[in-house]
Design a protein that fits this description.
Blueprint lengths: L6 E6 L3 H16 L3 E2 L8 E6 L4 H20 L4 E6 H5 L1 H7 L5 E3 L7 H5 L6 E2 L24 E5 L1 E2 L10 H5 L3 E2 L2 H13 L4 E5 L16 H8 L7 E4 L9 H9 L3 E6 L7 H6 L6 H10 L3 H4 L5 E8 L6 H12 L5 E6 L17 H24 L5 E9 L7 E5 L10 E4 L8 E9 L4 E4 L2 H13 L1
Parallel strand pairs: 1-2, 1-3, 3-4, 4-5, 5-6, 7-10, 10-11, 11-12, 12-13, 13-14, 17-19
Antiparallel strand pairs: 8-9, 15-16, 15-18, 16-17, 18-19
This protein binds iron/sulfur cluster (SF4).
Iron/sulfur cluster (SF4) binds next to helix 6.
């Protein structure tokens, strides 16, 4: 490493798509001959990849920038770089109000970091998001930040949908998909390096390829990916409810390499609220979709796990509309639920709508739905006692070095709970069979030894 190599420390905030951008910047640092350090005190360059989606995320980004700015004051020669969505959204304001920041990069300016490290960059490096802004590809240097056996792969960036509450099209620009061959190349390279699970992400996974010429689609991409030897699970995130086709449901249910799992943000069930959100579908479509994931005629004997997100407190959400959502959740269709209180975001259509709900009421509704979901999860998990699950091993357990942590097919990394594995060992990324012996609202415990499992279950019966 050359004497003028920089030592770079990263903080990555926000969603998995932002994590992929951070990993591209890690690759850029390495390719430019600089070093990555995981102690900010050792670093001479501090980079925070920010999120600017909603109020809480913006505040977390600002707090992190100010924290790193403190560190910068203690260390001579340190430079502070702010990248990502907050920079993209408020470049001038941030440049004016945060003099301690040396460089700003936007949500599509990951490659610009090499000029910053080379000392050739202007302070303001945020590029306006034109018609077809940058998206990385299979030749872009990228360094995974998490465990090697499971990786996010961004198949498209940006979004062309008009959802009234969402600022992402402003932060990320118009949709631009990567060609099928580029995604296949990247995944094949990852698998050759030990990846066994890829989590496909985009702002709207289900319109993948519609912007390419000639156009293509998610199903065509999946048909190419499942031919990669060594790949075990392909997990689908951020599908759009009205764009989930029967062909996609069929592949999720019947293609062994596609995890029987779907992350599809429904946002609400009340047709009037969905109309005000400009989501382009209503209650009937929501029910049709959920039923199709449970319909033996479509999914056979497969158990498709459903993750979704709901937004409460949107302008116009009456008590009756909220109750309709509460009753829908109480029906127990949803395996993994995230609930967000609406946040008034300048530049969105919903910010101008009448019929506002107080922030306090929105937070109460969100808490009540999450409480309901936890009860439903406890009950549903209790039904899994004694069942045999296929579990991907993630590593030594956080709870004890004598145990392993893993996830069954219905659990995405970091968000859907885990399976704590007892009575056995296995290598990271391996798939093991295990029998559920204990359950909770979020996690499960399962034994890799059938006899030990039988004994544990018998003990439970005796209690
Ligand atoms: S599809 Fe998702 S990212 Fe796109 S505008 Fe709607 S909520 Fe935002």
């Amino acid at each position: 490493m050359s004497s003028d190599a920089r030592k770079v420390y990263f903080v990555s905030l926000g969603c998995p798509k932002n994590q992929v951008d951070t990993e591209v910047m890690l690759g850029v640092v390495r390719q430019a001959g600089h070093a990555l350090v995981d102690d900010p005190e050792q670093a001479d360059t501090l980079v925070v990849n920010t999120c600017g989606f909603i109020e809480a995320a913006k505040q977390e980004s600002i707090d992190t920038i100010l924290e790193l700015a403190q560190l910068k004051q203690h260390g001579a020669g340190k430079q502070l770089v702010v990248a990502g969505c907050l920079s993209q959204r408020y470049p001038e304001e941030l440049a004016r109000e945060l003099p301690e920041v040396d460089h700003f990069l936007g949500s599509a300016d990951m490659l610009g970091l090499s000029r910053v490290l080379g000392g050739e960059a202007q302070r303001m490096g945020v590029t306006p998001l034109g018609q077809r802004a940058y998206i990385y590809d299979h030749q872009t240097p990228r360094q995974l930040s998490g465990a090697r056996h499971s990786a996010y792969v961004k198949i498209a960036e940006g979004c062309d949908r008009p959802c009234g509450f969402c600022i992402i099209p402003v932060l990320r620009g118009a949709q631009r998909s990567r060609p099928v061959y580029s995604v296949v190349e990247e995944v094949a390279t990852l698998v050759a390096q030990g990846t066994r699970e890829v989590c496909l992400v985009a702002q709207d996974l289900t319109t993948y390829g519609s912007d390419l010429s000639p156009a293509t689609d998610l199903e065509t991409l999946l048909d190419a990916l499942v031919r990669i030897d060594g790949l075990v699970w392909i997990r689908l995130h951020y599908a759009y409810p009205s764009a989930v086709t029967d062909g996609l449901v069929h592949r999720i249910a019947h293609e062994p390499k596609i995890a029987t799992y779907l992350d599809v943000p429904l946002q609400h069930v009340d047709s009037d609220v969905l109309k005000r959100m400009r989501r382009g579908y209503g209650e009937r479509r929501v029910r049709e979709l959920v039923e199709s994931l449970r319909d033996p005629a479509k999914v056979g004997s497969a158990r498709v796990w459903l993750r979704t997100t709901m937004l409460v407190g949107h302008p116009g959400e009456t008590e009756a509309a909220y109750q309709r959502l509460h009753d829908f959740v109480a029906e127990g269709h949803i395996d993994h639920l995230g609930v967000f209180p609406w946040s008034r975001e300048d530049g969105t259509a919903s910010a101008l709508l009448p019929g506002r709900v107080t922030q306090r009421k929105a937070q109460e509704r969100a808490a009540a739905l999450m409480e309901l979901q936890a009860q439903l999860r406890s009950r549903a998990h209790a039904q899994l006692l004694g069942t045999r699950l296929r579990v991907m091993v993630d590593g030594v357990s956080e709870d004890s070095e004598l145990l392993l942590d893993g996830r069954h097919e219905g659990q995405a990394p970091g968000i859907d709970g885990k399976v704590v594995l007892t009575d056995g060992t296995a290598r990271v990324g391996a798939i093991v069979e295990a029998i559920v012996t204990q359950t909770g609202p979020h996690d499960l415990v399962a034994s890799m030894d059938p006899e030990a499992a039988a004994a544990a279950l018998a003990d439970r019966d005796d209690d």
